[in-house]
Design goal:
- This protein is globular.
- The longest helix is centred in the middle third of the chain and has 24 residues, at 76-99.
- Helix 2 packs across helix 5.
- It has a 5-stranded parallel sheet with strand order 2-3-1-4-5, sandwiched between helices.
- The chain contains 9 helices and 5 strands; from the N terminus they run E-H-E-H-H-H-H-E-E-H-H-H-E-H.
- The protein has helices spanning 14-23, 31-38, 42-52, 65-72, 76-99, 132-142, 147-156, 160-166, 177-195; strands at residues 2-8, 28-30, 105-109, 124-129, 169-172.
- With 197 residues, it is α/β, with parallel strands linked by helices.
Length: 197
């Protein structure tokens, strides 16, 4: 079973592509969603509080992802501490999920697949690309986000030249959903062929 990484910058459409492949029967694991779930885990929450203090908790005692982000994203050392807490736990959950799958290939979606050195765990990497203006328009139109927030996230992610270097497959997503659907169908056939090699 091939392990296919899927990544792309904010607003590129990687989650939309992942959903299209899921509709074709491909098992999809969203590592970003796993990270959000882990924040609710008592052991993970305790490790985060030990590292960053009670200021990362909201009034109910849950991890406040916005507060944690503000604390870590602008500080490389704190970001490294956060990654050291989160990544091993995410990878453990990924391995458990993989053991339960039966398919020619699985898709593992992650916004920071390259930045976290996760690409090395994959048999191939799919990168979704779109120009920054298109991505910004999508995000500001479809999500509850300000331009400043978009720019801050964009600055934390690697650029498209780094993504191109590591990509085994590139999906250009500057057009409409119909075009992306066609790209998804083509990619699915390519990945099925890869899974027989």
């Amino acid at each position: 079973m091939k392990r296919i990484g899927l990544t792309g910058g904010i607003g590129s459409g990687k989650s939309t592509l992942a959903a299209m492949l899921a509709n074709l029967g491909v098992p999809v694991l969203d590592l970003d969603a796993l990270g959000r779930e882990l924040h609710k885990d008592a052991d993970c929450r305790a490790a985060l509080v030990a590292a960053f203090g009670n200021g990362i908790l909201d009034s109910s005692g849950a991890v406040d992802r916005s507060a944690l982000g503000r604390l870590c994203f602008a500080d490389a050392e704190k970001m490294a501490v956060l990654n050291n807490i989160m990544h091993p736990r995410i990878w453990q959950m990924e391995e458990k999920w993989l053991a339960a799958q039966q398919a020619p290939y699985v898709l593992i979606e992650a916004s920071v697949l390259i930045e976290s050195a996760g690409a090395a765990r994959m048999d191939a990497v799919v990168v979704v690309l779109a120009d920054i203006a298109t991505r910004r328009n999508r995000v500001l139109r479809q999500r509850n986000m300000h331009a400043e927030q978009f720019d801050a996230i964009l600055a934390r992610q690697c650029d498209d030249s780094a993504r191109r270097k590591i990509a085994d497959f590139i999906v250009e997503n500057d057009a409409d959903l119909h075009a992306l659907q066609q790209s998804a169908a083509k990619l699915h056939q390519q990945l099925l062929a890869l899974s027989t090699q």
